Amino acid sequence: MSKVQKTMFDLKDVNIQLRSIILEHALHLEFHSREIIFYILRTFKEEPKTLGNQGSSLSYKTKIDILYDLDEITSDQYTALIKQMEIRNQFIHNYDIDTFSDLIEDKPEFKKYLDRNYKKEIDDIEKRYFAGYLDLYNHCSAWLIMLRQQFRAGVTKAYEKFIDHSLITQFDEVLALADKKYLKKKKGFITALGTQEQVGDIPYQIADYKKLLKLSIAEKSLEIAEMTKDADVMKKVMTHKHSTKDQIKESKRKKQNP
After folding, report:
1. Which tens digits make up the pLDDT trace of 192-203?
2. CB 70 within 8 A of CB 40
3. 169 and 131, same domain (yes or no)
4. Is 62 a member of any domain?
């Protein structure tokens, strides 16, 4: 007799604990895949249509398909992620499957896959295939977490490049700031001693100026970083496009400072 034909008093016996574990695994994997796509697209929209939690959002499989098409996951990794998703679907949507023993009996393709890739030498059938499934999930999770970290590091790198580029394009301002600091310090030194610096003091002056220049660079970096707290500025920093307006401005700046 099918479990669906059982009385309502038997409906509670659906191994909700195991189903919940597998659902939790699926949620974790989908979260990581979504975050990776966010980093790839570098989108900062608060309520995105395709990457949020709305009906129009991309499915988990579509996200995995995108990662595969971008060559960010291998064919074997893609297959593993899809298998985990299919196992999830069986435990979440198929009332008759609430153990791994049910799964491998009703869906032999999963037995074949787990035996080939995550075989465990355990006598108990349920424990054997659950352990194999856990290995499958842990591998999938490790791949996506590593990929997410790599793309996050890439965003950090892009941010650092923006800071460096901004410092170069605004280096005249940095020098002006360093000059101002140096002259102010030099004036105080002369006032205190009542004497002019001698030629022999040049090495000291150079070393002193270097310190003040580094300080000025650090201050300018903080100023630029503060600007990026603005959402529009951050969006501009992370975009893959170089707008026509910015290209014109850059061209004019190069002509003014050949």
Report:
1. 444 455 444 555
2. yes
3. no
4. yes
Token representation of residue 203: 């090495």
Q: Token match 């003091």: residue? A: 201
Enter the DSSP assignment of 198. P
User: Is there a contact between 84 and 26 (Cβ–Cβ < 8 Å)?
Assistant: yes
Written as one letter, the residue type at 44 is: F
Cβ proximity of 115 and 42 under 8 Å: no
191: three-class secondary structure by DSSP: helix
Q: Residue 19 sits in which domain range? A: 12-154
- Band of pLDDT at residue 240, cut at 50, 70 and 90: low
84 lies in some domain: yes
Residue type, position 52, single letter: G
- Asked whether residue 117 falls in the same domain as residue 164, the answer is no
Residues 110 and 20 in one domain: yes
Residue 56's Cβ-count burial label (10 Å; 0-12, 13-18, 19+) is exposed
pLDDT digits (tens, 9 = 90+) for 94-151: 988 989 999 999 999 999 999 999 999 999 999 999 999 999 999 999 999 999 988 8
